[in-house]
């Protein structure tokens, strides 16, 4: 089993719009390709070729093309914030040729909000097919041979869903957009082979993990390897790589980690 980091950036991406010549790189070296970050989403892929998408980022079309992703078996959402959900229309070409909608899953409140905002995706409209058959996470424990575990995480005043994926004795944890480490998160992720974690910046943030919190999550869960994602323009790839332990990688768009 492997995880493909489709997008490793925060909600505004890197570079951010603005600054000199319209591009704000912050502390990131613009000559380092790994500092060019799209919004966060991942693919979980089994050895048999099953693919699960987590989040439909606003850069999803670009990410699918860059990573040659032209089919998925299911889609999961961590929460409904724009950078994680508003690329949902880019699922349309993946619906072509399918006998039915793509299975989709999220926590109860996320399901409610997605249905309210994107009703046409889940019910079809004007002769267009339904793209996704949306259901709550309580209705799924396995998707295309991959085991699904989950819990809710604090995301400032909101919540985000943490996921654990299990297949053939290997495990991958995914925790993006959290602001506190809970016992439930530690139990869910304990002993994973790869822990992909939110890591917005070095300084504390009210709704996201900073570098210290991300490293703490990797440590307390006894994860064999860690990957830092959801990085902002203060997190230069080379500079942060020099700060983290050997078993921790600074994520970048297109990074593939095998569990």
Automatic annotation (TrEMBL):
Residues in Metallo-beta-lactamase domain copies: 51-230
InterPro entries, per this entry? Metallo-B-lactamas, RibonucZ/Hydroxyglut_hydro
Q: Which spans are transmembrane here?
A: none
Please give the PANTHER family that the UniProt record associates with this protein.
HYDROLASE C777.06C-RELATED (PTHR42663:SF6), HYDROLASE C777.06C-RELATED-RELATED (PTHR42663)
Any idea what this protein is called? MBL fold metallo-hydrolase
């Amino acid at each position: 089993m492997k995880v493909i980091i489709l997008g490793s950036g925060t909600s505004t991406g890197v570079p951010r719009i603005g600054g000199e010549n319209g591009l704000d790189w912050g502390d990131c070296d613009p000559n380092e390709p790994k500092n060019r970050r799209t919004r966060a989403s991942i693919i979980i892929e089994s050895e048999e070729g099953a693919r699960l998408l987590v989040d439909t980022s606003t850069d999803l079309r670009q990410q699918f093309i860059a990573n040659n992703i032209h089919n998925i078996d299911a889609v999961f959402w961590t929460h409904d914030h724009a950078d994680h959900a508003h690329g949902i229309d880019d699922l349309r070409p993946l619906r072509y040729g399918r006998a039915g909608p793509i299975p989709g899953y999220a926590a109860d409140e996320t399901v409610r909000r997605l249905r309210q905002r994107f009703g046409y995706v889940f019910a079809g409209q004007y002769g267009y097919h339904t793209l996704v058959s949306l259901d709550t996470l309580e209705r799924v424990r396995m998707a295309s041979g991959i085991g699904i575990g989950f819990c809710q995480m604090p995301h400032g005043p909101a919540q985000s869903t943490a996921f654990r994926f299990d297949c053939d004795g290997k495990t991958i944890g995914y925790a993006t957009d959290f602001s506190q480490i809970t016992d439930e998160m530690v139990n869910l992720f304990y002993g994973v082979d790869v822990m992909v974690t939110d890591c917005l910046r070095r300084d504390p943030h009210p709704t996201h993990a900073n570098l210290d919190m991300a490293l703490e999550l990797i440590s307390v869960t006894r994860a064999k390897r860690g990957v830092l994602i959801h990085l902002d323009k203060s997190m230069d790839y080379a500079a942060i790589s020099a700060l983290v332990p050997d078993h921790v990688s600074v994520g970048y768009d297109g990074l593939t980690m095998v569990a």
